[in-house]
Design goal:
Elements lengths: L2 H39 L4 H19 L1 H18 L2 H7 L4 H41 L7 E10 L2 E9 L4 E11 L2 E14 L4 E13 L2 E12 L20 H14 L4 H29 L6 H29 L4 H22 L3
Helix pairs in contact: 1-2, 1-3, 1-5, 2-5, 3-7, 3-8, 5-7, 6-7, 7-8, 7-9, 8-9
Length: 358
């Protein structure tokens, strides 16, 4: 590490955090003006507004736009030192452009690790606090209503409810079927099913059980039956579950459980899991593109570099959105959908490094 390395790292990180702080302050000001009526109406304490809402809001917003602001920060300060002919002086002293990229990559690696930690561990924890605040002081209680829901409780055991409302944790027209060697061996039908959140247990009401054996069918009727089900009320909802309150390991375990249950939203969950890993790599790729693009002194100066930088940033975001849509609603693999933008922009980064001033 030489003085030039520390100089570039300080410029890089200083510009990044300065612009991020400014944007966050602007967003908070607009958000306060929008939600001040809700805060006053629901008598939200100032301490909770600051620590339970806005303090937890900062990591979420920082990570959401970290790649974009990393790119803008690189373009901004590199264009500035290029306009001051500092890049020319550095290269003329015998330092190669690839050696010049070293401090950029060190700073970008730090931001990528920070982004990975935020997305996979800190933000899921702070989102739980923020959502609890929003449910209490901003939004009315969220209810998930599902209709005609099929869930696999375990291999060979299928559950069905005609309708479910988690306002009272009650499902209508419930059935549970068990199959043995692809042949139906057990079927439970109930007028309704309820969930007790205190005991974490399920009960079926006004039920009929039909057991199919080699000797024939046996029927059983009753008013109430305790059930051991490997599901929660939200499993009977058509809505996608909140993945942003799960850390990486919880999300990975959750996806495996959803596969067993036969959830139709598996692709949404897998896209989220791959995004949490691919975005930090995008920080490294966009840093190389930004440094290569803005290291040449041009007549348009910083303005021209920023225009190209913002254009490339939005191209990356649009590319990512399009590919993930093909994954969630089409046949494209979630892994390919999330990583293919990084692949193409990595190729662009290599080309720009070769074209950069030597």
């Amino acid at each position: 590490m030489k003085k030039i390395d520390w100089y570039i790292i300080k410029k890089f990180l200083g510009t990044f955090f300065f612009t991020m702080i400014l944007i966050i302050l602007i967003v908070i000001i607009f958000d306060v003006s929008e939600k001040i009526d809700d805060f006053l109406k629901n008598q939200a304490p100032l301490k909770e507004i600051i620590f339970s809402y806005y303090l937890t809001f900062i990591p979420y917003f920082t990570n959401m736009f970290s790649s974009l602001f990393t790119f803008i920060a690189v373009v901004f300060f590199t264009s500035k030192i290029a306009a001051n002919t500092e890049i020319i002086a550095i290269l003329s002293s015998g330092i190669s452009f690839r050696r010049l990229l070293r401090p950029y990559m060190i700073a970008a690696t730090f931001l990528a690790i920070l982004s990975f930690y935020l997305a996979n561990f800190l933000i899921p924890m702070t989102n739980q606090i923020r959502y609890a605040f929003e449910d209490k002081y901003i939004f009315s209680k969220r209810y998930n209503k599902g209709h005609n829901i099929h869930v696999q409780n375990s291999p060979g055991t299928l559950l069905y409810v005609e309708s479910f409302n988690n306002e009272d944790n009650k499902g209508r027209n419930f059935t549970m079927e068990k199959a043995n060697n692809h042949n139906l061996s057990y079927k439970l039908s109930a007028r309704d099913i309820t969930y007790d959140s205190l005991t974490d247990s399920w009960e079926a009401h006004h039920y009929m059980i039909r057991k199919i054996t080699e000797k024939g069918m046996n029927f059983e009727y009753g008013d109430t039956l305790a059930l051991e089900l490997n599901v929660q009320p939200i499993d009977f909802s058509n809505q996608i579950k909140r993945m942003d309150v799960m850390n990486y390991f919880e999300l990975d375990k959750f996806i495996e459980e959803e596969k067993v249950k036969g959830s139709k939203n598996i692709k949404f969950y897998e896209v989220e899991r791959h995004k949490r890993v691919s975005f930090p790599f995008a920080t490294l790729i966009l840093t190389i593109i930004g440094a290569s693009l803005s290291s040449r002194k041009v007549r348009g100066g910083i303005g021209l570099h920023l225009a190209f930088g913002i254009l490339i940033s939005f191209a990356y975001i649009i590319f990512m959105q399009i590919s993930t849509v093909f994954a969630t609603f089409g046949t494209l693999s979630p892994f390919v959908a999330v990583w293919i933008p990084n692949f193409f922009f990595a190729i662009l980064a290599i080309l720009l490094v070769r074209l950069a001033p030597k």
